[in-house]
Structures are given as structure tokens and as C-alpha cells.
Design a protein that fits this description.
TIM Barrel, 2 domains, 8 strands, binds 3-methyl-2-oxobutanoic acid
């Protein structure tokens, strides 16, 4: 059994130049496969709204959705550092809300940390949550909960003005006490600058290689999420193709009467055949 990594191990990995590999998961089997494959961390992302629940975005996802899925992930990956993603409106309204909801991830789902989106504008919330003793990962760049304000699911920080704002956000997140920062969909040149500038670990999803590790969404890399595929995704499998082929074969087997076959059924207990036939006669 591998020992669960914590904040110190992630700092040691950063110092040693070892990159962390992490993935999103929302359910027990995926989490247990991820742990078995040696993932350094798992994010129970609010992307579950799109990948699992069929919403067009992450905004409708609730705290209860996140808690339920985080619990399943923890059961599947008891020895992996797991991060609960704070859904829209679970931290925007007040420090009290933010602390209470962040705390739910620890108390009800045994998460190790929480992640929330935003830079300077949520610095106060990050401070309030960390002051309550909860580890927070920041998340800037393309922040899906505010994709409306950002003009859609678009790369950020590609021009000097918006890159400058992201550098200020990154510094504010660190200053507020976050233990790590996730950059989403920003140019690798900007990632490298922020990575070198900050002391805390910096991770990327669609933000290039020069940083402390990579996150990928399981539905994207497995070829399960069909609505769209961001440029930054590498598809490692086409699970949808495998599932669809299996479902089609099953439909055909049922229609043709070839499933279930003899090996798929439970026969009357040996020696009880005559009693069984007698019992049926009671109904004639
Ligand atoms: O919800 C999620 O999976 C995320 C990633 C897109 C970073 O927040």
C-alpha cells in the first residue's frame, strides 16, 4: 500500500523536479483505477456537471452533488490526496459560507483540500478558508464557473494586458495562503513565468509543461465526454466507442435470443428437480 502524499510531499516533489500526475474522478471505480495507476492526486471537479450529470456547464452543480461524488471517490482512493472542487455560489457570497462549505468537504467526504476559482477577487475567501485550517488550491486562467464573463471556454492570458492581470492574481492567491495553484488554458510562456515566480507548487491543465505537474479531465482523456474536446486534451482511449459497441452487441444478442446462454442462468438445485415439478403442479 502506498502512503498518501500530503502538502510536504508535493513541496518535496517540486524541489526534486518531479512532476505530479493527476486526474479528475467522480466515482468509485474511476478513483480506484486512478489510485491503482499511481496518480499523485485526484480532483473531484465540478466538471462532474458536464462529464457525468449532462449539464452544459458547471454552474448548476450543487454542494450536495460534490459531496456525494467526493465520498464515492474517497472510498475508491483511500490512499490518494483528494481535492474537492467548490461549486458555483458555495464560496462567492460570504466568508462564512466559504468556510462552512469547504469544511463539508473535509467532514463529510474526507477530502484533503479544496479548490476554488479566481484570483484577487477571492483572495479574502482563500484567507478565510486557510485560517480555518483547510488547505486551498487556487485556480486561475480559464475558470469555467465564470466562462460567461470570459466570453466562453477560451484560453486566457494570451496578450500582455491579460497576462499581467493573471500574474497579479497568481501572486494574490499565494499571498492569501493557498498551498498550490492551478493554471488553466494559458500560454506555456506565462505558466513558466508564474511557476518560477511563485514558491508554492504550480500545476497546469492546458497551460503547458513548464510547471510542477499536469491535470487532465478523465472524461476527456478516456474519450467519454462527447460534447467537445479542448485543444489541450490528449485522448488516451476511446471508451465511448468500446461502450457503444458493447451496448449494440447486447441489444442484438437479446433480440436474437442468444443472451442469456446456459452459463448465465441459475438452475434448480441438483436433486430438487422432482420437488420443483411437484410444486408447480400445485398451481394447475
Ligand atoms: O472541475 C474541474 O474539473 C476543474 C478543472 C477544469 C480544472 O476545475
Amino acid at each position: 500500500m502506498t502512503k498518501k502524499k500530503g502538502r510536504l510531499e508535493f513541496i518535496q516533489m517540486k524541489q526534486a523536479g518531479e512532476r505530479a500526475a493527476w486526474i479528475t474522478a467522480y466515482d468509485f471505480p474511476t478513483a480506484s483505477f486512478a489510485e491503482g495507476a499511481g496518480m499523485d492526486m485526484i480532483l473531484v471537479g465540478d466538471s462532474l456537471g458536464m462529464v457525468v450529470l449532462g449539464y452544459e456547464g458547471t454552474v448548476p452543480v450543487t454542494m450536495d452533488d460534490c459531496i456525494r461524488h467526493s465520498q464515492a471517490v474517497r472510498r475508491g482512493a483511500p490512499n490518494t490526496f483528494c481535492i474537492g472542487d467548490m461549486p458555483f455560489l458555495s464560496y462567492q457570497v460570504s466568508d462564512e459560507d466559504a468556510v462552512r462549505n469547504a469544511g463539508r468537504f473535509l467532514k463529510e467526504a474526507d477530502m484533503d483540500a479544496v479548490k476554488l476559482e479566481g484570483g484577487r477577487r477571492v483572495a479574502g475567501r482563500i484567507r478565510a478558508i486557510t485560517d480555518a485550517g483547510i488547505q486551498v488550491m487556487g485556480h486561475i486562467g480559464l475558470t469555467p464557473q465564470s466562462s460567461g464573463q470570459l466570453g466562453g471556454f477560451k484560453a486566457q492570458g494570451r496578450d500582455p494586458d491579460s497576462a499581467r492581470e493573471l500574474i497579479k492574481d497568481a501572486l494574490a492567491v499565494q499571498e492569501a495562503g493557498a498551498y498550490a495553484l492551478l493554471l488553466e488554458a494559458v500560454p506555456p510562456e506565462l505558466t513558466e513565468y508564474i511557476w518560477k515566480k511563485l514558491e508554492i507548487p504550480v500545476y497546469s491543465i492546458g497551460a503547458g509543461a513548464p510547471c510542477d505537474g499536469q491535470l487532465i479531465i478523465c472524461g476527456d482523456m478516456l474519450g467519454l465526454f462527447q460534447a467537445f474536446t479542448p485543444k489541450f486534451v490528449k485522448k488516451y482511449a476511446n471508451v465511448a466507442e468500446v461502450e457503444i459497441a458493447a451496448f449494440k452487441e447486447y441489444v442484438s444478442d437479446v433480440k436474437q435470443g442468444v443472451f442469456p446462454a446456459d452459463e448465465h442462468v441459475y438452475h434448480i438445485l441438483k436433486g430438487k428437480e422432482e420437488d420443483f415439478a411437484k410444486m408447480l403442479k400445485e398451481f394447475e
